[in-house]
Amino acid sequence: MLQNSKNLIRDKLYSFLRTASSISVIDHVSHFAKASVLEAQKSELLATLRAKGISNDAVLRAMSAVRREDFVPEILMPRAYENVALPIGFGQTISQPFTVAYMTELLAPTRTDTVLEIGTGSGYQTAVLAAMSIRALYTIECVKELYEETRARFATLGVPATTRFGDGSLGWIDAAPFDGIIVTAGSPDVPEGLAHQLAVGGRMIIPVGSQREQTIYRITREHAGTGAEAFRAEEFHGFRFVPLIGKAAWRQ
Ligand code: SAH
């Protein structure tokens, strides 16, 4: 009798273990299947970026190295490699991959550059810049919850950026001058104080326009002076960004 109930317990245990291990096998298989679908979609996205004119190899390598699925809400992971902006909460979006690649190509950061990003958001653009091994990277976000969430994400993923919560339209005086400033939200104008935080030879990439449509400007500081003649402006058309909110930007 005792032997029978021992056998019964043993059989139940075995059957439980079999079920548990087959569930974890299915989990593993579906994890790998999902990962390989995402990899294939990433290759397609990179081909699209090339076809749309992105040609800087360092930028394409960085876009390939960063896993965009790590920067979107879990429910949107299957859509991580669509060439579209996606919602990240708090009324904000992760920028469209083409826009990230385009702005990074305009900035053309080198390994000796110190770069400031305004509008950390999900941290995707920050991670793409970090993958280019620049000397130092600073990023500012004005939505507290996003700032906290993304700071934690950087710690988990090991993204080497110095983060700050605050109004980026005023720049980051203590860390200036910058070889590059990249503004990832649309501004009504080029904040003058921000331009003055550029080093000579430094570039600022900033979308400027109405709240509906913006032109991306590349402002290059050619001289040490602070007058308009110290800066050269180039324009690139047809982009849309969420608004830059701040003392030197749109008021909310
Ligand atoms: N680079 C981000 C894009 C996020 S959208 C990404 O890849 O996900 C732009 C971000 O700019 C939003 O998170 C918004 O909250 C932030 N923002 C708007 N005005 C700002 C300001 N004055 N200072 C700092 N961040 C600002």
Number of strands: 9
CATH class (first level) name of the largest domain: Alpha Beta
Identify the strand order in the major beta sheet.
5-4-3-6-7-8-9
What structural category characterises the helix and strand content?
alpha/beta
Overall radius of gyration: 23 Å
Helix-strand string = HHEEHEHEHEEHEEE
Quote the distance from N terminus to C terminus: 78 Å
User: How much strand content do the residues show?
Assistant: 15-25%
CATH topology of the largest domain: Rossmann fold
Number of folding domains? 2
Mean pLDDT: 92
Assembly type of the shown chains? single chain
Low-confidence stretches: none
Q: Any idea what the CATH architecture of the largest domain is?
A: 3-Layer(aba) Sandwich
Query: How would a crystallographer describe the biggest sheet?
Result: 7 strands, mixed
Bound molecules: S-adenosyl-L-homocysteine
Gross morphology = elongated
CATH homologous superfamily descriptor of the largest domain: Vaccinia Virus protein VP39
